[in-house]
Amino acid sequence: MAQPGRFNTLPIVAETPQGAMLDAAELGRVLLPAKQCPKHFSVGDEIEVFLYRDGDDQLIATTRRPRARVGQFAYLKVVATSRAGAFLDWGLKKDLLVPRREQRRPMEEGKSYLVYLNLDEQGRVVASSKIEKFLDRWPARYEKGEEVELIICERSDIGIKAIVNHRHWGVLYEAETFRKLRYGQRIRGYIKQVREDGKIDLTLHRPGHHKLGDLAERILDKLGQNEGFLPLNDKSPPEAIYKTFGESKKTFKNAIGTLYKKRLITIGKEGIRLAGNDHPAK
Questions:
Q1: CA 253 to CA 268: how far, in whole Å?
Q2: pLDDT, position 263
Q3: pTM of the full predicted structure?
Q4: pLDDT surpassing 90 at residue 105
Q5: Which residues is 276 bridged to in the sheet?
Q6: Beta strands in 103-185 (DSSP E)
Q7: Does residue 86 belong to any structural domain of this protein?
Q8: How far is CA 203 from CA 21, 39, 139, 159, 197, in A?
Q9: Residue-number span of the structural domain to which 31 is assigned
Q10: Minimal CA–CA distance to 106: which of 125, 130, 124?
Q11: How far is CA 50 from CA 12, 89, 113, 146, in A?
């Protein structure tokens, strides 16, 4: 079933001077403008297109990729406002409308907002900045350590709220976040745990002991590149550790602990050294 506001793979059923006509089943035939048609195509070929309604409210196909589709959140810029609402740049010729009733607060031209894309009663793709009503509508079924897509949102008393896979709220705790994060930023994260009440704890590092092995190897490599010495130890500031390895202080401490137990490094006040290396690098 072909769906507006999403990517669909549709067959070409006719060629016209205006472009290729695609069969969108119950939605009828849809035009793919000539400028977006492949250089060489034949009737019967299938092509992936995005479906939406143009300025004349006609369903049209495009091979351009918008910044988001129906069912997703995106951080988009307002390019114009009118009585109807605010219009956002989402990467297509026709701007995306946020009706006034769907604005959390009045939107201003030139500013960017986090919005959710859905279909209105007429089947047109529209957006809403009232993001809360589109989250946590499904049970949170994630596994510990599962990789997820995050969209960074506002800060709270305990950390940073993030949208998980366009479906749920989650939290990145301040004490475990050692990098600058921007509102609306999309990043990769991992499920730390799903609590009994359904709330989700997140981390930017894959949980599990296998991570320690990977970091331990990188520490050894770094030591080898720096004449066997690094000015870091278990007393170093978290920011210094993250700048060097992109890891939390806890993960770093576990890794150098593993290396120390295997007698591969020594730990001193100045930093860590490869075992057998008695002098730090100059």
A1: 13
A2: 84
A3: 0.74
A4: yes
A5: none
A6: 112-119, 125-128, 147-155, 159-164, 168-173
A7: yes
A8: 47, 46, 20, 11, 18
A9: 7-62
A10: 130
A11: 14, 16, 23, 29
Pick 217 or 231 by higher pLDDT: 231
Phi/psi class of residue 94: alpha, beta or left (left: φ > 0; alpha: ψ in -120 to 50)?
A: beta
Q: Which is more confidently placed, 235 or 213? A: 235
Helix (H) or strand (E) holding 21: strand 19-23
Asked whether residue 221 carries a pLDDT value surpassing 60, the answer given is yes
Q: Residue 79: what residue type?
A: V
Is 139 inside a domain boundary? no
Residue 94 and residue 58 share a domain:
no
DSSP characters for 237-262? Answer: -HHHHHHHHS--HHHHHHHHHHHHHT
Alpha carbon of 94 to those of 85, 89, 127: distances in Å?
A: 14, 8, 13
Task: Write down the H helix ranges in the chain.
Answer: 209-225, 238-245, 249-261
- CATH (domain of 29): 2.40.50.140
Residue 276 in tokens:
């057998």
CATH of the domain at 233: 1.10.10.10
CB contact at 8 A, 123 and 4? yes
Radius of gyration of the chain (CA): 26
Dihedral pair phi/psi, residue 53, rounded to 5°: -100, 135
In a domain, 15, yes or no: yes
Output the six-digit token pair for 145. Answer: 């350590």
Pair 114, 167 in one domain? no
Place of tokens 């704890």: 201
Task: Output the six-digit token pair for 231.
Answer: 């000015």
Residues 228, 222: Cα–Cα separation, whole Å = 8
Instruction: Tell me, yes or no, whether 280 lies in a domain.
Output: no
